[in-house]
């Protein structure tokens, strides 16, 4: 059974740039669980078509933190890099 939904249910005004509209999409959520960076594919998020600001779905975030850990659910904004603490790869150049 299919229910027809209006577009308004899947578009929200962007509070960041005031001019864009946010569409509900699925993205890969990255969050820290203790010292581990975990990724959750197909996570619902609202993404602005103008400034690209994203807001993760609060319901899904709440469910995720229940599943994982009360400390989880702090989203990592894209573009912010946490450098990994690993030695540089020691690969000999191809001859
Ligand atoms: Zn925006």
Folded structure, characterized:
- The structure is a single chain.
- The chain has 95 residues and is mostly beta strands.
- The chain has a domain at 8-67: Ubiquitin-like (UB roll) (Roll).
- It is 11% helix and 34% strand.
- It has one helix and four strands.
- It has one helix at residues 58-67; strands spanning 11-13, 21-33, 36-48, 54-56.
- A four-stranded antiparallel β-sheet has the order 1-2-3-4.
- The longest helix has 10 residues, at 58-67.
- It is extended, with a radius of gyration of 18 Å.
- The N and C termini lie far apart (61 Å).
- The mean pLDDT is 80.
- The structure holds zinc ion.
- Zinc ion binds at residues 14, 16-17, 20, 48, 50-51, 53.
- Zinc ion (ZN) is lined by residues 14, 16-17, 20, 48, 50-51, 53.
Q: Specify Rg, calculated over alpha carbons.
A: 18 Å
Shape: extended
Per the CATH scheme, the topology name of the domain at 8-67 is: Ubiquitin-like (UB roll)
Helix content: 10-25%
CATH C-level category of the domain at 8-67:
Alpha Beta
Q: What about the largest sheet? A: 4 strands, antiparallel
Q: Kindly state the mean pLDDT as a whole number?
A: 80
Could you say which small molecules are bound to this protein?
A: zinc ion
Unreliable residue runs: none
Beta-strand share of residues: 25-35%
What is the CATH architecture assignment of the domain at 8-67?
Answer: Roll
- Terminal Cα separation, in Å? 61 Å
- Number of E strands: 4
